[in-house]
Amino acid sequence: MKLERLREILARASGKRIAVAGDLMLDEFVWGKVGRISPEAPVPVVEVTGESFYPGGAANVARNLREFIDGVSVIGTVGTDDNGGRLLDLLRAQKIQTDLVLEDPDFRTIVKTRIVARHQQVVRVDREEIRGPTEKQVAQVTAGLGKILPELDAFIFEDYGKGFLGAELVRQISADLNAAGKIATADPNPLHKVDWGKVTAVKPNRSEALLAAGFSITDPTDPVMEDAALLEAGAKLLATWDSQMLLITLGEQGMMLLEHDQPPHHIPTKARQVFDVSGAGDTAIALFTLALSCGASPVEAAEIANYASAVVVAKLGTATVTPKELLASLENDNRA
Hints:
The protein is an alpha/beta fold and 336 residues long. The protein contains ten helices and 13 strands.
């Protein structure tokens, strides 16, 4: 992709409005250093030097979008606990709209705590409750979405398999999106069987694609275009999910784009350094969807998502990419 083409696409972004629905999480990072092994067990003792909190899960997709556009809404559930309040405060501080977030006193906000010592993750602690919305909450969400739907340019389903994107909620939202002719993309969870209702695109990673297709997970093949399991799973999912396209992220091998009546298109990775893959998939679905809403072709949108992901994996923690960083990434690649 040429730099001027990326500038042209991004110039259309500022006025776009995109909603993200899915499992909202609070990402907590506990930073420290290791100086000794515990006398109680053969584990390192981490001396804590600081803490950081970020919107995670579907909220991190919204956070990535917010770097490029003003109109971002999130849809999901938080508890009325301290962590739920902290997550809402973080979102509102970034001017991400939370009007459609359900605040449920019977729900415990999902928190992912990562303990990091000298740039190395020591352990992750998950506090979560897997529970879907009630019939009343489904009606509340769909009614609220109906009010903003005419203003939306695109919609993202971000499924971490924690229950928010239940079958009935997805069915109703997908039907409304299809009727309105909106761009809709989904980042699926292979263990959570959902009918995505003819969305524009679905974006699993390689392992997720194999599992969703009913295949065993195998090691990647190099070159990618000779990865028979990947190609077979992709073709099966493209038909099963009945989406217009399938974008499979491949880690260090980049991405694979599949479309009906088109040959598979492999996009090699642009990452030069990898410090932390936390949230890379969130960045990919965010930028892929945004690019489509700005008139990018599917291949261009996939290339933009690939460049964006390369930027965030070079950062530590749940990170985002800025327009400036995205342009610089492409410029550096064109010079190489």
